[in-house]
Amino acid sequence: MIMVEVLRNPPACSASTYLSNRQASSHHCSIRRDFGIHFQCIGCSSVSYCWNLRFKPHFSKIHVGRVVALAERSRCDTRPGSGEQRIQETFLMCKSVEIDNSFLKPNAVASLGFDLFCEGERVSENYPQQILPPWSSLPDQELEDQNHAESDSRNPAKINDEAENEMYYLEERNEEILSKRILKLSRTNKVRSALALHRSMVSSGLLPNSHACNSLISSLLRSGKLDVAMEIFQLVKSREIITGHTYSLILKAVANAWGSDKALSIFEEAKKDNKTEACLDTLVYSTMIAIFSKENNWVQAERMWRGLQKSGHVGTLVTYRILVCTFVRCGQNELALDAYHEMIQNGLTPSDDAMEAIIGACTREGKWDIALNILQSFLYSNMKPSLTACNALINSLGKASQVELAFNVYGLVKALGHTPDAYTWNALLGALNRANQHDEALLLFEHIRKEHGSILNLHIYNTCLMSCKKLGLWDRAMQLLWEMEASGFHVSITSYNLVIAACESARKPKIALQVYDHMVLKNKLPDIFTQMSLIRGCIWGSLWNEMEEILNVAPNGSVYNAAIQGLCLRRKTDLARKLYTRMREIGLKPDGKTRALMLQSLPKRN
């Protein structure tokens, strides 16, 4: 018979193992049957404990033995042949512990470390190893080396699997109390203990409530254990305690890990089941909309939105915010406006970013009146519109030639404490240009240069050059061009084209050619707008040689058509026919107007 005694030696309990003489030849575990090993803890508290010890024999097969720790003055007697056992105390706790006996030798002393578990919550006690030297002839250091060697050889994967499959002996049988413990463990990210307690309840026929299961699933997802969370999800679904929150957690995690298609399949499967379809509330639909919004898949987002409407649920502020921002980002401005109007009808106040997005959608659709109403609703709700929203509205009003309203919004920008930026000033300049108030635009530019010279950029200069082009102020345009180059701006082809167009409007073709030569020196290749403006200027200035040089730079059908049509208007039919012949020879196709003019220029027969 094998006997084990636990002697208290604070702060740990040690286990001594010894054999009777008649069993000295077979001191390892039997492979045929399990056997009991009895512990007596001297001086422990009056509470009794119970552990399950797993022994690893040389045969690589695990046998389970029952280990009992009794309080002081308690005892457990087993007499061979008598069949009598007497245990005075009740066992309150249970824990599975592995003991490797591959190094056990006759009359050797082994040490035992253990952890205490109290009603599902783990309290770890790290006991130092104690080696008692009563009757063993084996040196302590040799035994410790064997212990460490065996411990290092254990498979970590196997340890993790055993930890995940761990279960507790439950003295408490109240489902509500145990559910609260799972909830507490999950909230503190004690995933292993919470999972073990959940499995212990399920194996004992107890059912945690949905709140505890959702908290456990959330804790598992935070720990990256999606597979285990899916197991809990399937269990909750089979027990019919699943909620919309459960689906929301799983759908979001599945979409992040396996893609939106997998999440969509889970959602569609839930819709087909009458029992789970009732769980698909606003939260679940909002989660699916957010999943597709992340991928800019506005088609599926709209489909989920229509499904939400059909199910009779009302979207939340977050739902409509995601819809509006997604539709605006994907260029679906009409859908964005529909979602905004539905949000207002449901009595919801849109957030700042949703309002800015819908103002942007209105400006792109040219619906400045709706955008202005939205801005007013901002103010009525004691909300402060951002500078971006105000700039977008000013730009929209400017495109509609609503100069007075645009400057009213500019006054609102200053009243709100915002500092006008380059976009604000450029939008105001553009509004004046579209209203054909070019002189006022130039005056405003002078004000900007004097008061806010640091914010001048290429766009503001180009807007001012547009005013010079409309007014034919070629000298002012030239001055601005030199100023831009002196300031270190990267002058674009557009800027040079505007200056050349201003020279064309002022009938200064030679100045335009000088700007063209300067542009070429700056390694700026002319585009079709540059060539056509120069061609028109050369025709009106009768610069035929310069015209042909420009035509030979980069032959283009549109440029040749413009040249031929201009020559016909100047009654230079001979030169026009010459250019028409060359145009056909190099493979360029004349347009209908060019062919009609050439037919008219043919000599009449008598």
Describe the structure.
Mean pLDDT is 76; it is low at 1-159. Helix 12 runs parallel beside helix 14 and helix 26 (557-569) packs antiparallel against helix 27. By secondary structure, this protein is of the alpha+beta class. It is elongated, with a radius of gyration of 44 Å. The longest helix has 15 residues, at 244-258. It is 58% helix and 9% strand. A hairpin with a 6-residue loop joins strand 6 and strand 7 (85-87). The protein is built from 28 helices and eleven strands. The strands form four sheets. It has a four-stranded mixed β-sheet, with no helix packed on it. The protein has a three-stranded antiparallel β-sheet with strand order 1-2-9, with no helix packed on it. It has a domain at 2-154.
